[in-house]
Amino acid sequence: MPKVSVIMPIYNTKDEYLRQAIKSILEQSYEDYEFIILNDSPENVQLKEIVSLYQDSRIKYFENEQTLGVAKSYNRLLDLAKGEFIAVMNHDDISQPQRLEKQVAYLENHLEVGLVGTAYKKFGEINRFKTIENPKADAEIRALLLFKSSIHHPTSMYRRSLVEEHHIRYKEEYVSLNDRKFYYDIGQYAKLANMSEVLYRYRFHKDMVSKRKKPEIFAEQCDFHAHWFEYAGIELSEEEKEIFDKYVTKGKCHIKDVSVLEKIEQVLSKINEANQQHPLVPAKEFSQVCGRYLVKRCLNAIVFGGVNSSKLLKKTELPIENNLLLKTCNLALHWRG
Predict the structure, then answer these.
(1) Closest CA to 123 of 270, 195, 11, 24
(2) Are residues 106 and 9 in the same domain?
(3) Last residue of a domain, one of 208, 225, 252
(4) Taking the mean position of all CA atoms in its chain, how far away is CA 83?
(5) Alpha carbons 157 and 324: distance in angstroms, whole number
(6) How many Cα atoms within 13 Å fall on the side-chain side of residue 245?
(7) Along the chain (337 residues), what's the average pLDDT of each consecutive run of 10 residues?
(8) Whether the Cβ atoms of residue 248 and residue 264 lie closer than 8 Å to each other
(9) Residues 153 and 247 in one domain
(10) Is residue 323 domain-resident?
(11) Three-class SS string for 133-184?
């Protein structure tokens, strides 16, 4: 049995991107793995031809009879995997040579951790060379999951026994947020973690799912939020749900009115208080996340609406970290007004 199963669905992948992805796995310093490649575009025979060029016994190539989509493909890959650990790989990205070696060592040395991600560097047509480092500790990772994905999915490695024992699978109705639900489910039985070392390169290009399917992804986010609130026993009005969906977690919103900012503070305070009383996720860390998101939206309101948030920040019970930029802008608005 291989120690690691590297799983990679492919779908109409550009030749160059696919070759680089495969090469990055075959050149890993860690060698005890199987590399399962699942073609979700079976009519694209060129992809099969490219894979067949690599004469390596660790590669196992499969095809779906018809296109299933990413979540169903990942679930089929889970069924095919035989390794103790499962490592996810995107068909258009690059794993650093020591990725598998270091993640295996981490999981072997941290038996309480069920899934570990890594820091990563963006590259490609846009956002070149930006390094992203997600929180390392389990408490903050789980506290952030309502707001954003706090583990970058293609950097993840997890224990196959955990997902098999608890029947954890990717949510097949989602095209994007299936990974966040997956983390949430694993987090019920084991700790989550991120390594601070950059072990992955994430390609940005115009054909990415996140760029092609923005309306579908936004709908998935709203659905994920609704299920999270329901599971936590938090009752929000339709207006409060809309405020959370459109302004709290949507980074590219434009807040132009102080009344919207006040509603954001009210919603964040409400969900924070509910989690304090009956913690679904670590209470201290969740409270800090709510406070940080309020500060972010106050900065947004300054930029797009010239809104002074000083009074709101003084009365809120959310923990607000000192933000020099926000304080300076609010002071400037005060003297201007």
Answers:
(1) 24
(2) yes
(3) 208
(4) 23
(5) 38
(6) 21
(7) 97 95 98 98 94 95 94 96 98 97 98 98 75 95 95 97 96 85 94 98 72 77 92 93 94 91 97 94 96 96 93 94 87 76
(8) yes
(9) no
(10) yes
(11) CCCCCHHHHHHHCCCCCCCCHHHCEEEHHHHHHCCCCCCCCCCCCHHHHHHH
Residues 188 and 276 in one domain: no
CA distance 150 to 169: 18
Q: Which amino acid is at 133?
A: E
pLDDT at 206: 65
CA 124 from centroid of its chain's CA atoms: 19
Q: How far apart are CA 220 and CA 176, in angstroms?
A: 8
Burial tier of 132 (Cβ tally within 10 Å: 0-12, 13-18, 19+): middle
DSSP 222-264: HHHHHHHHHHHT----HHHHHHIIIIIS-TT-----HHHHHHH
Residues listed for the chain: 337
Strand partners, 192: 115
- Asked whether residue 197 falls in the same domain as residue 300, the answer is no
- State how far the Cα of 271 lies from the Cα of 279, in Å rounded to an integer: 10
Among candidate residues 197, 255, 185, the one with its CA nearest the CA of residue 224: 185
Residue 58 DSSP label: T
Nearest CA to 101 among 26, 11, 204, 30? 30
Angle between helices 258-277 and 214-232 (to 10 degrees): 40
Look at residue 224 and tell me if it is in a domain. no
Pair of tokens at residue 154: 């293609």
Asked if 314 and 268 sit in the same domain, the reply is yes
Q: What pLDDT score does 325 carry?
A: 87
Q: Which residue has the tokens 């952030």?
A: 144
At 43, which CATH number? 3.90.550.10
Is residue 36 domain-shared with residue 173, that is, in the same domain? yes
Q: Which domain holds residue 32?
A: 4-208
What is the three-class DSSP state of 188? coil
Q: Which residues of 141-171 are buried (b: 16+ CB within 10 A; e: fewer)?
A: bbbbbbbebbbbbbbbbbbbebbeeeebbbb
Does residue 237 share a domain with residue 204?
no
